[in-house]
């Protein structure tokens, strides 16, 4: 998998807690004060942040959630399946990739507060993506539940939860 090694080295990617690799590429200088944000933020946030995100077929991006909307951008490699569960328990998915005729999108927004995870669709491959978050990402907004926690909350989605969580 020379392409994966090349991308990790070229873009200085590091392991991400949810799975895959990442590198922050942008953090706005300006910020939003806590008093102007919803109550679920613990402090001020930058206007926006951006990362490179590399997911390989031998792992997955585990279900997690953040307060903010997150825009996913497709760059290269395999299409990626993004799975989402709203707090009300509604499940949806979107394929992010370059085959527009089959319904893939090159960019997709995950609404803030949704649980979401992802996996590369082709074996022995990778999905090289970008993610933009606004207000800017902060690990204080990041929740990474284990499998038991999500199964208790959404037992009706057992199959996808077992596929995209760690025990």
From TrEMBL:
Chain segments annotated as transmembrane: none
Name this polypeptide is given: DUF985 domain-containing protein
Upper taxonomic lineage: Bacteria, Pseudomonadati, Bacteroidota, Flavobacteriia, Flavobacteriales
Organism: Flagellimonas meridianipacifica
Span of the signal peptide: none
PANTHER family: DUF985 DOMAIN-CONTAINING PROTEIN (PTHR33387:SF3), RMLC-LIKE JELLY ROLL FOLD PROTEIN (PTHR33387)
Domain DUF985: 7-143
InterPro entries: Cupin_DUF985, RmlC-like_jellyroll, RmlC_Cupin_sf, YML079W-like
Pfam family, one: Cupin_5
